[in-house]
């Protein structure tokens, strides 16, 4: 039995190491970790050290799964469709307690054995060609189909062909700007959204509630936030309430009428072209829309127009699940297709900015990093006036049949500054811990926002109860998150290179709409286990322990505890 209990860890996962050692497992350490035994260091050990990893590259594959020497290229390095697992957020280093060098000695004794269990934060650190049937590994290959922004965007576009589900009900509409057809579809969507937004703004003014935008001071920008890409909603350059462009509402109404006809399939007999290719001068329309939406220019509606706008928006809402959440400022968020931790993300309200960026990402050199444009959720639930998102874990233990486990505990991540659609800097809109750690809490932040910017789901449920929405978590949010996760997995199932004996823990990120509808943003294949707060220290340790219970202990004892995991799907 001891021969079947050799494990290897790549990356700082002290909880996994302690749990496996407590189960009687022996670690076969990477050459670059732990103390080296000078009196045992022979030619073979020297060779391991020389070929050991220095920067997380392909050499780690050799050290990890080919201990007897002989270079083996990482699986998928020549496959243009293979994305290596994105690096996890920097973990907290912890010393390996081994005062008597017992674990180093045991590691040396198993130096020529292939590990039976591998936990790594890099997919390309495991060579699947060398794995034996009974090896257990914490990654699958080709999961980029749903764990990269570009992959998830493409997979969910195919979802209606796979099952009766509409991704627009849980995933903000998304376009790959490096694909010509999708870039054209994005341009059409941006224009149509601008027309709908104008009707919403006009109705607000007609109700004696003029849309007021605030003046934006120079915002401090953190590392990696390119100010030239940030569009702020500016102070009005027109006299307050002064009406401009009386024909603008009529143009927007005509566009929306034609679009409604297309959505209702009334265009089949009339062969009506897209309303974005005819009807109005779009360049002129958008420039005028910007003045109304972002600079405070006024609009005037007649009573007849007011009723027509209301009817149009009501009819469009029946066809467009995202009409409410999309708001009225036409904000879009642009993301590099294969990045993580908030790197390179840009918010904009201007079509020309998006197209300028798209033109720069069509070169072959940008093939693996194409940008995606996704509709920003403008009408979202805030806590104490602050934006947050939810990190929700789930585990896949098989793809054939697809077997999915949902973790009942999760946590919320807060921004450092109050939410505002008039100020689009990172500190207000990107909830990633790796982004927010660069910002101090704003003086105008509500003091009830936690100082470490983290809440548990239990704290969130208490907050919902205070709002009189005690049932929202179990009746709306959890079912919505489960359904979104399953739809994403099923949409990409045929793309994943699966093997028996593997498993993978994922972290899905969700926003919550004003109506408590969860909106899936992305799925991470290497969710951070960094204890950035007391809440995450406890929850991240728990989910790692429970994962081992599920994938190891349960094999020997099907009745053993699986902690907070819940089986939600098995084909």
Strand content: 5-15%
CATH architecture of the largest domain: 2-Layer Sandwich
Specify the oligomeric state.
single chain
What's the alpha carbon Rg, rounded to whole Å? 26 Å
Q: Which segments are poorly predicted (pLDDT under 50) over 5 or more consecutive residues?
A: 33-63, 67-95, 208-241, 267-272, 363-369
The overall pLDDT, averaged over residues, is 80
Structural class: alpha+beta
Description:
With 571 residues, the chain is an alpha+beta fold. It has 3 domains: 1-29 and 101-137; 143-171 and 379-570, 2-Layer Sandwich (D-amino Acid Aminotransferase, Chain A, domain 1); 173-208 and 242-376, no CATH class. The chain has 18 helices and 14 strands. It has helices spanning 14-22, 43-51, 59-65, 102-109, 144-147, 149-157, 159-162, 180-206, 247-263, 267-270, 282-295, 303-319, 351-359, 426-429, 433-436, 457-466, 472-492, 534-556; strands spanning 6-10, 26-27, 117-120, 136-137, 174-176, 332-336, 346-348, 371-375, 388-399, 402-414, 454-456, 504-512, 518-524, 565-570. Strands 9, 10, 11, 12, 13 and 14 form a 6-stranded antiparallel β-sheet that branches. A 4-stranded parallel β-sheet has the order 2-1-3-4. The chain has a 4-stranded antiparallel β-sheet with strand order 5-8-6-7, with helices on both faces. The two termini are 32 Å apart. InterPro entries: TTL/TTLL_fam (IPR004344), TTLL_monoglycylase (IPR051437). Its main location: cytoplasm.
Descriptive key words:
single chain, 571 residues, alpha+beta, D-amino Acid Aminotransferase, Chain A, domain 1, 3 domains, 6-stranded antiparallel beta sheet, 4-stranded parallel beta sheet, TTL/TTLL_fam
